[in-house]
UniProtKB/TrEMBL annotation:
Domain of life: Bacteria
Official protein name in the record: Alpha/beta fold hydrolase
Pfam families listed in its UniProt record: Abhydrolase_6 (PF12697)
Record keywords, A-Z: Hydrolase
Amino acid sequence: MSRRDAGMATAEVAGAPLVVALHGGGYHRGYFDVPGHSLLELGAAAGFRVFTPDRPGYGASDPLPGGEATFARQAEALDATIGALWTEHGEGRPGVVLLGHSIGGAIAVHLAARQPRWPLLGLSIHGVGDRSPAHVTDAWHALPAGAPVELPPEQRRALLYGPEGTVDAEAVAAAKAAVEPVPLAEMLEIVGKWPEEVARLAAAVTVPVQYTLAEYDGLWVVDESRVAAFTGYFEAAPWVDARLQAGAGHNLDHHRLSRALHLRQLAFAAECAARG
């Protein structure tokens, strides 16, 4: 699997960890680099080195052999990718903080549960839950088998973004440059197998966890009880920072609150590194 990096900090903060961010379904790594909402630019300005590898089969990344890109197999491949990043860029650093959005968040949990050999310091996930609305699950199961799926613009806007006032039309338009078709198997796993195994996987995570679920996330059941239930699965984590984020939708990284999210994620990374 090929890999690319971005967000090279020009004045890195001493003791800063590597930050690796995994994109969700239907977007390549450019999801984190939308103009005006770029995690890469903000991370570099704050002195962090941020890497955003394409997941298997997206962007510059090769598909997995046999085409079976389950979350577990993607985690295995990304484990090796991040290990290579650590070997090349980890000298003098305390470890890696892993970020994941949506399906990338589910795969990040898989990855953390693997207890990787490279030093994982913390896990920050957003846009992923444990229970999807029935209409979303039914819609995914009704899609024709075989071909990757690209949501129509109006459906993408309704499911992935909050109402007017939470996101600018320019950001939604700019994010289209990162859109790619999503394998149907990913969509079915996130509403099927993932909810059945998240508690088991999360229980194996032994690093601090940051969790954010947006108020207007159209892909998950959203309320305080779901946030509490989800974070409760991380019973072995030293500490958990959880938030139900008002005023944003699923693609929180592109909303008007994106800077606040990214600053919290970078602060979490710095705290994980400091507390070790």
